[in-house]
Structures are given as C-alpha cells and as structure tokens.
C-alpha cells in the first residue's frame, strides 16, 4: 500500500474519532421539568435549558443576587423556561457582562439537591442594529431628464 493511501486512512480515522467524541456533547434544549426528571433518573450528562430572566410586574429582576465583595464566584438568579416554570440557578463564576440585557439565556449544567447548578451560561443579547420601531426610509428621487 502506498504511503499516501495509508496517510489518508489515518486522517479519515482521526476525523471519525473527533466526530464521534463531539457527538456526545451535543444535546437538545429541555425544560426544567424534563431536566429534573432526567436528574432523578440518574442521568449525569450536561443539560441545556433555555429561558428568560424572571421579572416582577414592574420589570425588576427576581431572585438575582451577586455580591462580588463577599464572594466573586457566586451568582444566583431566577430563570423562566419556555414552559413557564421558574427555577433558581446557581453559577459558581462571576456574573457575565451585560447579563441583564440578554433576551434569552441558555444554561448548561445539572440539578444538585433540587437546585440547578450552571457550569456555563450563553446569552443572546439584543442586536444593536434592530430598532423598536421601523423607520420609513425616504425614497430617492431620480433626476429629471431634460429634453
């Protein structure tokens, strides 16, 4: 067998190994109810939950606590999943920058003693290119042709 063929087989084997190892990290989004059921059944893999920060009727955040002067690596907040269930989340890292401005939040972690402990937080922030209102763009007028 030629060295080129052997090298090609090795490269393909490495690529297949990488794909298989990363496929185990892929997961779908679940609700807090599904995540709690998975944890109760002994599943220990990381769980992805998507939601929004819980707010009171006045628009203030509920359950958010971060005191960096006491413990900079303890941040807790309340997240409401897409099913409407609110859950307290603990994050053992500093509060992410612009956390309060995010539209949607994805937390990756699992349940420990009936509390969701996040290992990672992903945020979808509002785009600076989107306006709350659509603006009417003035039409450009074509110059009049002179005859």
From TrEMBL:
Membrane spanning residue stretches: none
Identification of the protein by name: Cytochrome c-type biogenesis protein CcmE
First and last residue of the signal peptide: none
Organism for this UniProt entry: Catalinimonas alkaloidigena
GO cellular component assignments: plasma membrane
Molecular function via GO: heme binding
A biological process term (GO) from this entry: protein-heme linkage
Keyword Heme appears in the UniProt entry: yes
Compartments reported by the entry: Membrane
Keywords in alphabetical order: Cytochrome c-type biogenesis, Heme, Iron, Membrane, Metal-binding
InterPro entries referenced in this protein's UniProt entry, alphabetically: CcmE, CcmE-like_sf, NA-bd_OB-fold
